[in-house]
Amino acid sequence: MKIVCVGRNYAQHIDELKNEKPAEPVLFIKPDSAILHNKNPLVLPDFANDFHYEVELIVKINKLGKHIEEKFVHRYYDEIGLGIDITARDLQSRLKAKGLPWEKAKAFDNSAVVSRVFLPKTDFPGMQNIRFSLQKNGQTVQQGHTADMLWPIDKLISYISRFFTLKKGDLIFTGTPAGVGTMQINDIFTGYIEGREMFRVKVK
Prior knowledge:
Structural class: alpha+beta
């Protein structure tokens, strides 16, 4: 399986990082080795000094798909979860300044926190009406609402399937809202969808 991540999908997050609003979705991939396994602590690697959290709603693909028309996308997923896309921000900045790929800053081992459980999409009134949040040491640091996405979930999946064949079990990280910040040793991060706890991870 693979993780397809979407960058710059929330306007306020684009503004806080002083990035340019893209004309189409920004995509990058994390390998399956990026997943932080359940209940394991997050050990920050030694090749960077400034690691950032980015909470994101996750969609799990349930069958093979390629060039999926948007009107049929709803057939290709039935569960959503929550995760953190962890970014080595200082390393990413150095790589971007040189015009180099920045997978080392985004796709390293354990750079993807994935919730222990996924929720049926039938639990929600619609994919554009879901709230999620992230707490750092008990304080809310990020709050998102799918209505604020520049590209809604179904449109994203249709777009992604033009470039990458989607397989059962693939995960789509749909972008992060504003409020990203630094991770420090002993921080505890807790993620919620509509008030339901989805994960809890400690940094070491």
